[in-house]
């Protein structure tokens, strides 16, 4: 076994050890075990969120895009860097306050409370699980590819190990395993990525020398217009590229649920600063490494392995092991969060809501477990037989989630006239249009990204259908009252809002 | 102030008031941890130099206690059958106090055990009627369901799926009157009304208006 593999094995054992140790601690019923995490500060909160949001995409997909399209790929990076802050700014405070007033526990439940109809949950939950499945599958592929390269074992076995480790990790847990391993994983990811970047820039003789060398291959790679130059630019695709990761985040149920879990708005503000700092340090790195890989490894068979292969070339063996641990950290923390989320949606939003209302707590957890296992098995079968590109899968699932959910989430918090028929038609049309646009190849024919077309369709459907059905399906009075309460944020001077507890909005007496 | 009575597991959790509104069988009135002077100080930190008026208000909550026990799914529960009976002695799981807003149905896991004086159910209903919140209020069954869902979500989120989970309702839903302070006042620039939490002094701005300058 080579040195890199040893590092990976030690990393897996360390993570599993923390989980097993916390399980034992939990069985002793120690104080604070179940309720851990309440006292987490903004740094841990922010980096947990980032390590769960970033993923194998950053190590495979981003490098691949940069390797094939040069600096054009930075359109995606721009959306990635700004997405978190945009999400917090547009949805953060309002969604937190409204969900408090409406009494929602999950992001799907929040939609059902804002648009009171069982059809909202019946449509939103399967779409969410469907997209999450694709996203998780991309993490499986990324993990399998990484292990294959480092250990040299065949892809099918590497994939099996990766899926096994991820599922095993999903079944472990405890205070430390959840809160602080995510934090540690974010640090490892950052160190690993920056280490590769520094090694890469040293290998190509610095950024300027590297850019000059890339320019000699194809000067268009140094521009933001792609390898074929500005004449071939498809503006619809560029707009879509920025939209995917900037506003696409707002459609992710597992990201939006974090708004509802904020302890205080002041923590959110500080956390967003940490998150932005992390993003600025971390996100550009894989894109730059991917571009410089054109010089270091000009004949790569699989561009998805650009970052892996560059790391293997420019770093010493022990460093490759640490970097691989960072990559697996990104994959595991994301896949684990998404699998848990899909398990929760299946058990609470679908099974308990529509099939077995009197389901016991134990049955509910078992439904989650079976969901995770079934998704893992299907994901393995698909990924081992005909593995699609990681970037394609991530962009596809983010596109569908964005097209289906961004307008309904934004309108839920900002537009009092958004009603049930509008929300249903928006989710259905957004999903169908983006999926059809992608699968029928209309992207190449029209030059318009499915994210753009999906968002336009779902937004128009929401506005037009809501306006047309205001009389037959008015927004319930208690929802309008809650939205009016949410509106009050804007007029209040900033200094008075500092440290405000929005949860108290639901305790205001009539004569106050 | 005295401690609330020991929970009676056999007590009915709620009843229906004459108005048809779901009402708890027992009500506990919490004493504020924050004095009126401290509430005024919170207000004056926001609006320095302001003149204020303060009054105490109560918000109706439901309260229930759940015991959450976890064990490895690879190992059978170590409790014997007789131990499993709720009446056989104290449960070993972690006790979680859950407060559910009587209007919104939103649940909170409280970091404290509610203590206070027993109060009349009518007082709870009166507080209920005085609130400006809208929406279908939860009944005792909704409260139990919300509390279970909240605790289960919390536990699964932290211990993930590798443990067996048992939730027991150790205290049936009863009523809580939570104290808050309404502080109204103005300085030369603004007039405002702020709700100050009677337990932790956090605040919520009910309204604020800019005063017209001469």
Sheet/helix structural class of chain B:
alpha+beta
Extended strand count of chain B: 10
Global outline of chain B? elongated
Strand content of chain B: 35-45%
Can you walk through the features of this model?
The complex is a heterodimer of chains A (512) and B (214). Chain A is globular. The termini of chain A are far apart. Chain A has 512 residues and is mainly α. Helices cover 75% and strands 0% of the residues of chain A. Chain A is built from 23 helices and no strands. Chain B is α+β, with helices and mostly antiparallel strands. Chain B is built from three helices and ten strands. In chain B, the strands form two sheets. In chain B, strands 3, 4, 5, 6, 7, 8, 9 and 10 form an eight-stranded mixed sheet that branches. A two-stranded antiparallel sheet of chain B has the order 1-2. In chain B, a hairpin with a 5-residue loop joins strand 1 and strand 2. The chains are: A mainly alpha (512), B alpha+beta (214). The interface between A and B is large, with 67 and 65 residues.
Topology at a glance:
The complex is a heterodimer of chains A (512) and B (214).
Chain A: H1 3-27, H2 42-53, H3 56-59, H4 61-69, H5 74-102, H6 107-114, H7 118-151, H8 155-171, H9 175-203, H10 207-217, H11 235-246, H12 253-260, H13 265-282, H14 284-296, H15 306-314, H16 317-355, H17 361-385, H18 390-414, H19 420-439, H20 442-446, H21 450-468, H22 477-487, H23 494-497
Helix pairs in contact in A: 1-9, 1-16, 2-9, 2-13, 4-14, 4-18, 5-11, 5-13, 5-18, 5-22, 6-7, 7-8, 7-16, 7-17, 7-18, 7-19, 8-16, 8-17, 9-14, 9-15, 9-16, 10-14, 14-15, 16-17, 18-19, 18-21, 19-21
Chain B: E1 14-16, E2 22-24, E3 27-30, H1 36-46, E4 51-72, E5 94-101, E6 107-110, E7 116-119, H2 121-129, H3 140-159, E8 163-186, E9 190-197, E10 203-210
Parallel strand pairs in B: 3-8
Antiparallel strand pairs in B: 1-2, 3-7, 4-5, 4-8, 5-6, 8-9, 9-10
């Amino acid at each position: 076994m080579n040195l890199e593999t040893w590092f990976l094995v030690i990393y897996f054992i360390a993570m599993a050890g923390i989980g097993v140790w916390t399980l034992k601690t939990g069985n002793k019923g120690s104080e604070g075990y179940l309720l851990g995490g309440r006292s987490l500060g903004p740094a841990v909160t922010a980096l947990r969120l980032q390590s769960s949001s970033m993923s194998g995409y950053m190590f495979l997909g981003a490098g691949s895009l940069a390797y094939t399209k040069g600096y054009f790929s930075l359109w995606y990076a721009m959306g990635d860097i700004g997405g978190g802050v945009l999400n917090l700014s547009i949805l953060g405070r309002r969604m937190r306050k409204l969900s408090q007033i409406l009494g929602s526990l999950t992001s799907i439940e929040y939609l059902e409370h804002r648009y009171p109809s069982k059809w909202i949950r019946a449509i939103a939950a399967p779409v969410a699980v469907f997209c999450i499945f694709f996203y998780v599958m991309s993490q499986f592929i990324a993990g399998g590819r990484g292990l294959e390269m480092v250990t040299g074992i065949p892809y099918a076995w590497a994939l099996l190990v990766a899926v096994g480790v991820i599922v095993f990790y999903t079944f472990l847990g405890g205070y430390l395993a959840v809160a602080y391993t995510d934090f540690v994983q974010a640090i490892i990811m950052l160190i690993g990525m920056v280490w590769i970047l520094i090694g890469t820039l040293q290998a190509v003789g610095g950024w300027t020398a590297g850019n000059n060398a890339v320019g000699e291959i194809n000067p268009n790679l140094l521009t933001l217009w792609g390898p074929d130059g500005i004449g071939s630019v498809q503006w619809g695709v560029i707009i879509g590229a920025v939209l995917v990761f900037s506003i696409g985040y707002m459609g992710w149920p597992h990201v939006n649920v974090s708004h509802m879990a904020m302890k205080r708005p002041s923590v959110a503000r500080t956390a967003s600063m940490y998150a932005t700092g992390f993003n600025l340090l971390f996100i550009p790195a894989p894109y730059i490494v991917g571009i410089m890989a054109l010089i270091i490894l000009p004949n790569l068979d699989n561009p998805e392995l650009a970052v892996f292969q560059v790391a293997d070339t420019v770093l010493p063996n022990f460093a490759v092991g640490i970097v691989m641990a960072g990559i697996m950290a990104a994959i595991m923390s994301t896949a684990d969060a998404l699998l848990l989320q899909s398990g929760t949606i299946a058990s609470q939003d679908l099974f308990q809501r529509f099939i077995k209302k009197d389901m016991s707590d134990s049955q509910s957890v078992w439904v989650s477990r079976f969901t995770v296992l079934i998704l893992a098995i299907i994901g393995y079968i698909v990924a081992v037989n005909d593995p699609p590109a990681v970037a394609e899968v991530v962009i596809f699932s983010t596109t569908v989630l964005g097209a289906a959910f961004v307008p309904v989430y934004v309108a839920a918090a900002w537009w009092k006239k958004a009603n049930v028929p509008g929300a249903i038609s928006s989710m259905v049309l957004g999903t169908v249009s983006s999926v059809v646009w992608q699968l029928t190849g209309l992207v190449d024919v029209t030059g318009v990204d499915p994210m753009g077309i999906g968002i336009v369709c779902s937004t128009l459907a929401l506005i037009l259908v809501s306006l047309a059905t205001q009389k037959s399906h008015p927004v319930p009075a208690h929802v309008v009252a809650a939205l009016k309460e949410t509106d009050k944020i804007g007029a209040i001077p900033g200094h008075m809002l500092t440290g405000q507890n929005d949860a108290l909005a639901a305790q205001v007496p009539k004569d106050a | 102030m005295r401690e609330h009575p020991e929970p009676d597991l056999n007590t009915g959790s709620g009843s229906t008031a004459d108005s048809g509104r779901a009402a708890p069988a027992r009500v506990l009135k919490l004493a504020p941890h924050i004095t009126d002077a401290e509430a005024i100080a919170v207000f004056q930190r926001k609006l320095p130099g302001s003149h204020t008026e303060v009054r105490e208000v109560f918000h109706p909550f439901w309260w229930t206690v759940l015991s959450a026990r976890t064990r490895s799914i690879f190992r059978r529960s170590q409790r014997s059958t007789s131990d499993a009976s709720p009446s056989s002695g104290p449960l070993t799981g972690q006790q979680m106090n859950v407060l559910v807003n009587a209007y919104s149905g939103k649940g909170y896991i409280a970091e404290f055990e509610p203590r206070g004086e027993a109060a009349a159910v009518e007082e709870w209903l009166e507080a209920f009627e005085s609130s400006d919140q809208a929406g279908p209020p939860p009944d005792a069954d909704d409260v139990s369901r919300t509390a279970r869902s909240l605790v289960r979500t919390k536990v699964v989120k932290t211990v993930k799926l590798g443990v067996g989970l048992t939730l027991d309702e150790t205290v049936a839903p009863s009523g809580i009157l939570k104290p808050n302070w309404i502080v109204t006042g103005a300085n030369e620039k603004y007039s405002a009304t702020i709700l100050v939490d009677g337990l932790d002094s956090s605040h919520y701005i009910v309204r604020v208006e800019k005063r017209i300058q001469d």
